[in-house]
C-alpha cells in the first residue's frame, strides 16, 4: 500500500514538474514571437481596414502591456494540450479498457469542436464583426467626421475575449453528449425544450456581438448548427443502441 502511494506521489511530482516547465517555456516563446502572434490576431481587421491599417498607443507602457497580456493568455491556449496529455498519462493507468475508449472519444470530440469553432470564429465571424464596427466608426458628412484610430490594447483585449467565449462554447456540445450518454438528462427533454435552447443561443449571440443583424446571425448560426447537430447525433446513437439491443435479444 505504501509503495503504491509513494509511486503515485512520485509520478505526480514528475507530472507537475513537466506541467510547470512546459508552461514557463510556452510563455517564453510566446513572448519571443509576440509580434508574429499580434499580427495573426490583427490580420482579420487589417484586411478590412486597408489601406489605413494601423493602431495607436496612447501610453508609454501600452505596447508592453499588450505584448505581455497577449503572450500570457495565448500561452494557455498552446499549453492546454500538454496539460491534458499529462493528466491523461497520470489518470489513464487506473481506468479500464472501456473507460479509456470512452475518454479517448470525448477527447477527440472536444479537440475537433475546439478547432472547428476556433477556425470558424477566426475566418468568418470576426471579419464580419470588424466590417460592421469599422464602417460604423468611419463616417464623413458635412456635419460630422469620424475616423477610427483603434488602440492596440483595447483591440487585442476584445479579440481575445471573443476567442475565449468561442473556446468555452465549443465544449458545450461535448458536455451535452456526456450528460446524454450518462443519462443525467434525457434526449426527450432536450428535444422538448429546443425552443428554449434556440432562444438562449439568440440571446447569447446578441450579448457578445455588436448590435448588427449580420454580426448576430454570423454568431448565432454556428451555435444553432452545432446544437442541432449534437441532438441529431445523439438521436442516431440512441436509435442505434435500441436496434442493437433488439438484435441481441432475438439472438
Main attributes of the structure:
two-stranded antiparallel sheet; 251 residues; mainly alpha
Structural features, described:
Pfam families: TatC. InterPro entries: TatC. It is a multi-pass membrane protein. This protein is mainly alpha-helical and 251 residues long. It has one domain (1-249). Helices cover 82% and strands 2% of the residues. It has 9 helices and 2 strands, in the order H-H-H-H-E-E-H-H-H-H-H. It has helices at residues 2-32, 34-49, 62-91, 97-137, 152-170, 172-181, 187-192, 194-208, 213-250, and strands at 139-140, 145-146. A two-stranded antiparallel ribbon has the order 1-2. A hairpin with a 4-residue loop joins strand 1 (139-140) and strand 2. The chain is flat.
Residues in helices, as a percent range: over 70%
Distance between the termini: 45 Å
Query: What string, H for helix and E for strand, traces the elements in order?
Result: HHHHEEHHHHH
Residue-averaged pLDDT:
80
Count of discrete domains: 1
Largest sheet: 2 strands, antiparallel
Radius of gyration: 23 Å
Estimated structural class? mainly alpha
**Strand portion:** under 5%
**Number of DSSP helices?**
9
Query: What's the number of extended β-strand segments?
Result: 2
Principal-axes geometry comes out as flat
Q: How do the strands of the widest beta sheet line up side by side?
A: 1-2
Low-confidence stretches: none
GO cellular component, one term: TAT protein transport complex
Keywords: Membrane, Mitochondrion, Transmembrane, Transmembrane helix
Family: Belongs to the TatC family.
GO molecular function: proton motive force dependent protein transmembrane transporter activity
Amino acid at each position: 500500500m505504501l509503495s503504491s502511494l509513494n509511486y503515485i506521489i512520485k509520478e505526480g511530482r514528475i507530472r507537475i514538474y513537466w506541467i510547470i516547465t512546459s508552461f514557463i517555456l510556452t510563455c517564453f516563446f510566446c513572448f519571443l514571437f509576440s509580434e508574429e502572434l499580434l499580427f495573426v490576431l490583427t490580420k482579420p481587421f487589417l484586411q478590412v481596414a486597408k489601406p489605413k491599417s494601423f493602431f495607436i498607443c496612447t501610453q508609454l507602457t501600452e505596447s508592453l502591456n499588450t505584448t505581455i497580456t497577449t503572450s500570457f493568455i495565448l500561452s494557455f491556449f498552446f499549453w492546454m494540450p500538454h496539460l491534458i496529455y499529462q493528466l491523461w498519462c497520470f489518470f489513464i493507468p487506473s481506468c479500464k479498457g472501456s473507460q479509456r475508449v470512452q475518454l479517448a472519444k470525448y477527447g477527440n470530440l472536444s479537440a475537433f469542436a475546439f478547432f472547428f469553432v476556433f477556425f470558424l470564429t477566426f475566418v468568418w465571424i470576426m471579419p464580419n464583426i470588424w466590417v460592421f464596427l469599422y464602417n460604423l466608426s468611419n463616417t464623413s458628412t458635412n456635419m460630422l467626421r469620424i475616423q477610427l484610430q483603434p488602440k492596440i490594447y483595447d483591440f487585442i483585449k476584445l479579440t481575445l475575449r471573443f476567442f475565449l467565449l468561442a473556446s468555452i462554447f465549443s465544449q458545450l456540445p461535448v458536455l451535452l453528449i456526456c450528460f446524454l450518454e450518462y443519462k443525467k438528462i434525457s434526449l426527450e427533454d432536450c428535444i422538448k425544450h429546443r425552443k428554449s435552447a434556440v432562444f438562449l443561443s439568440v440571446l447569447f449571440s446578441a450579448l457578445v456581438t455588436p448590435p448588427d443583424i449580420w454580426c448576430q446571425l454570423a454568431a448565432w448560426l454556428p451555435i444553432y448548427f452545432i446544437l442541432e447537430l449534437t441532438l441529431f447525433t445523439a438521436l442516431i446513437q440512441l436509435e442505434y443502441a435500441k436496434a442493437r439491443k433488439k438484435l441481441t435479444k432475438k439472438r
